[in-house]
Amino acid sequence: MSKKIILLTIALGLGFTLVQDLLKITGELELHVLDIGQGDALVLQTPEGHTILIDGGPGTGVLEGLGEVLPFFDRTLDLLVLTHPHEDHVAGLVPVLDRFEVKGVLLSAPDYENQTYKAFLARVAEVKIPVYLAEAERDFEFGSVTLDVLYPFEPVSGKMENVNNASVVIRVVSGENEILLTGDAEQEVEAELLAAGAPVSADILKAGHHGSRTSSTPEFLEAVGAELMIISSGTGNDYGHPHEETLAKAEDLGMEVLRTDLEGTVSLIFSTLHFVPRVYWLRSILAPRLRSFSSRPS
Ligand SMILES: [Zn+2]
């Protein structure tokens, strides 16, 4: 191949990458539930361009997932959330700390024996990233998007019988759109939230604990009243997640269900407009799995 053809090929390749990356900037809220196997790793991109990563999944797959949904020049995470210190949520965050500039870490910090969790905390301290202990009183604002922390009510510390129930529960509010992210919170937390009158209603629910039967009680699902339930679980996982009972409850309530074990990465773009921006159509051709979501009029 001549030099000219090689240069032209490189130029075309770079041009295509640049166009693809520019198309990633939509000016709308985006949620990507990454396909990282059995675990959780979610990316939120605000209309103003902030990026928030919630959990990192069980391995390094999160890096590939971030590469797919973020423009190549975006190496900054405005907030990194660790919902609780189980391996399937924390492991991927360690390599993320090495490759991204992280502006802040929000976590629930029970005393829990896990070497990866300890390595994560040590690295966060070493890089001197500001750490916020999750509590309902402390919410976060990124441009037009609010992260309303609903749980834990007060900062968690000490040993716990079940660290799933230390999970940070966040309601993301952006204009008319509301997304409820529950980590691996189980039915005990759901009951506490309902008893406290916490504002759990949302259009989208990321189901607790990978669709396990130990989360998603009918009372909780009814109070959330979501149109769509997203379940993050690995294909053929050892736990049988999502459990049939959870899927049946969602069906009873007329919730659509999207699962990462069946669909791969689930990407939603939230349009607050009555029309879908033109850029979305271009993107949808390049990334057919991207779905537009507009909340039903209330
Ligand atoms: Zn988990």
Give a written overview of the molecule.
This protein has 10 helices and 17 strands. The protein is α/β, with parallel strands linked by helices and 298 residues long. It has a single domain, classed as Ribonuclease Z/Hydroxyacylglutathione hydrolase-like (Metallo-beta-lactamase, Chain A, 4-Layer Sandwich), CATH 3.60.15. Helix 7 links the parallel strand 13 and strand 14. About 3% of the residues have low confidence. Zinc ion binds next to helix 3.
Write the layout of secondary structure elements.
Elements: H1 3-23, E1 29-33, E2 42-45, E3 51-54, H2 61-69, E4 76-77, E5 79-82, H3 87-90, H4 93-99, E6 101-102, E7 105-107, H5 115-126, E8 131-133, E9 140-142, E10 145-151, E11 169-174, E12 177-181, H6 187-195, E13 204-206, H7 218-224, E14 228-231, H8 244-252, E15 256-259, H9 260-263, E16 266-270, H10 278-286, E17 290-293
Residues 39-40, 86, 88-89, 184, 210 line the site of zinc ion (ZN).
Query: In the CATH hierarchy, what is the superfamily?
Result: Ribonuclease Z/Hydroxyacylglutathione hydrolase-like
Major sheet: 8 strands, mixed
Low-confidence stretches: 274-281
| CATH topological fold name | Metallo-beta-lactamase, Chain A
In brief, what are we looking at here?
With 298 residues, this protein is an alpha/beta fold. The chain has 10 helices and 17 strands.
List keywords for this structure.
298 residues; alpha/beta; Metallo-beta-lactamase, Chain A; 7-stranded mixed beta sheet; 10 helices; binds zinc ion
